[in-house]
Amino acid sequence: MRAALVDYSSSGSEGESEAAARERSGGEARHGPPGGRGFSPPGSRAAMPSLPLPDSVRGMFRDQEEKERVEDDCGKHEGRLRTFPHERGNWATHVYMPYIAGEDFLDLLQLLLICGRTYVPQLKGQEEFHISLSQGVVLRHHWINSFVQSLKGRLASCHRFIFRADRVKVYTNETKTRTFVGLEVSSGHSQVLELVSEVDEVMEEFNLMPFYKDPSFHMSLAWCVGNMSESLGGQCIQEMQVTSLEAFSFWGTHCPGRRGESSGELALSDCTASSGLGLTPPTPPQFLGTLSVPKRRQAN
């Protein structure tokens, strides 16, 4: 038995059918008794209400959804807040040059923390160190491998260079919810900018935001919650600047210098893409740049 499918493309089609029925019957077309099955007034269609989903079905995946849900509990992250909400399948990512800190550098960090905490007691030292080459962006999970491969291809031809960081500076994030103390890159800026331009090309491939215009490249040393730029600025930053110069002056005497100068050098490995998966390029790191902090000249 075959069921016929009838398609009414407009209200005019119904009117023509009714007129033909009147001519055949010599009277009014019959639609069946009011309220009967399939009855609806001419020219109108009643919307069928959807059936509610049974509670037993709705509860089948409730436990799994609760496990996957990520709450922004700043108490679990030392007061830090997300700059954008977490969504399933999205991975917060940024590109940076990592630095593995040695004992001398960690000694410098402790000296700066002692100085900074006299003005902002809640100042905390960074546990990992890097120089950022991109903003924080969001990658879809299935983009990650392609993103890393594009980065490696773009940066494969970059040559090793030397750049210097010798200025202590205070920074805040875009939302002013955190403040940082960092060492700003003072020379070699153009070479780092070339790296950023390559990273920006990859960002464009994935329709992601490029790096900031006129960036201040730096390595964060310490941080605190809130906008504490005024408290850490002025006298505090001057004292930390003197402390860093004195510490690196001592450190530099133990480092072979270039062209007759002594200098402290921080080796930076190749660019790394950091995501929620903790991704790094699978190849062994090769030195892409050397961060040089000059030895302060001793008074005669």
Automatic annotation (TrEMBL):
EC numbers: 3.1.4.-
Bias type Basic and acidic residues, positions: 19-31
Cross-referenced InterPro entries: Usb1 (IPR027521)
Subcellular location: Nucleus
GO annotation terms (biological process): RNA splicing; U6 snRNA 3'-end processing
Record-level Gene Ontology MF annotations: lyase activity; poly(U)-specific exoribonuclease activity, producing 3' uridine cyclic phosphate ends
Keyword Lyase: yes
Main location: nucleus
Cellular compartments per GO CC: intercellular bridge; nucleoplasm
Active site: residue positions: 130, 218
Region (Disordered): 1-57, 275-300
Keywords: Hydrolase, Lyase, Nuclease, Nucleus
Subunit structure, interactors included: Interacts with PLRG1, CDC5L and PRPF19.
Its job: 3'-5' RNA exonuclease that trims the 3' end of oligo(U) and oligo(A) tracts of the pre-U6 small nuclear RNA (snRNA) molecule, leading to the formation of a mature U6 snRNA 3' end-terminated with a 2',3'-cyclic phosphate. Participates in the U6 snRNA 3' end processing that prevents U6 snRNA degradation. In addition also removes uridines from the 3' end of U6atac snRNA and possibly the vault RNA VTRNA1-1.
HAMAP family linked to this entry: USB1
Family named by the database record: Belongs to the 2H phosphoesterase superfamily. USB1 family.
UniProt protein name: U6 snRNA phosphodiesterase
